[in-house]
Design goal:
Blueprint lengths: L1 H7 L12 E3 L2 E3 L10 E5 L2 E5 L7 E5 L2 E5 L3 H4 L1 E6 L12 E6 L6 E9 L4 E7 L2 E7 L2 E5 L7 E5 L8 E8 L9 E9 L9 E11 L2
Antiparallel strand pairs: 1-2, 3-4, 5-6, 7-16, 8-9, 9-14, 10-13, 10-15, 11-12, 15-16
Length: 211
């Protein structure tokens, strides 16, 4: 699943249409579509907001009312879990990898790398399970067995140590194969990494698919 998703590396735009409704003291005549964050409409003592891509959804409360929104495992059919430890790069800064959204056919996810070396090259490795295999210099491979790859190089933002970030929106393509878990880890080329391996690496991220 994620192999197809990430190989596409396509930036998707989520389009939606909503009908405005009002009456009985309530008015919902405003909406927005975006690749993330929260959109809101408010009036009187009420506020309505929603997010199109956050895994954990949005929670809004006021008075005796509460509204939860966003994508949820029961709807999406999968959940995303961060695990394991990364390996420091230049300056002793450990890069971080995360994924947010709904990792199911037709939905959008955002892959994010943070705190890599500025201007570095990132490589995404995919696997079928969680691991903690020594790679030298105290670094660990958190994904195993490996799927063919890696995917990259993916250029990180320029700058100094810790400034190398990447945000990659991807639309999940139609899925025909069923896999229980896909694991992900990012390695960043970094000649100044204290491990002496020439790279730093992130934590692992596992996507557990629903039945």
């Amino acid at each position: 699943m994620s192999r197809l998703l990430l190989s596409a590396l396509a930036t998707g735009a989520l389009a939606a249409a909503a009908a405005a409704q009002s009456g009985g003291g309530f008015d919902l005549t405003w909406h927005a579509t975006a690749a993330g964050g929260v959109t809101a409409a408010s009036g009187g003592g009420f506020r309505l907001a929603a997010s199109t891509d956050v895994e954990e959804g949005a929670e809004l409360a006021g008075g005796a009312f509460r509204l939860d929104g966003g994508f949820w495992p029961g709807v999406c059919g999968s959940f995303i879990q961060s695990y394991g430890a990364g390996c420091a790069g230049t300056g002793g800064i450990v890069p971080q990898f995360s994924m947010r959204g709904c990792d199911a056919s037709g939905y959008d996810v955002v892959l994010e790398v943070q705190q890599g070396i500025g201007g570095g090259q990132a490589f995404l490795f995919l696997g079928l399970g969680q691991a903690a295999l020594p790679m030298g210099g105290g670094c660990l491979l958190n994904v195993f067995p490996l799927l063919p790859g890696p995917i990259g190089p993916l250029p990180l933002a320029p700058g100094g140590p810790g400034a190398g970030n990447l945000s990659l929106p991807v639309t999940v393509p139609p899925i025909t194969a069923v896999v229980a878990t896909i694991t992900h880890q990012v390695f960043v080329s970094d000649p100044g990494a204290p491990s002496g391996t020439g790279f730093s690496n992130t934590n692992g991220v596992a996507v557990h698919l629903g039945g």
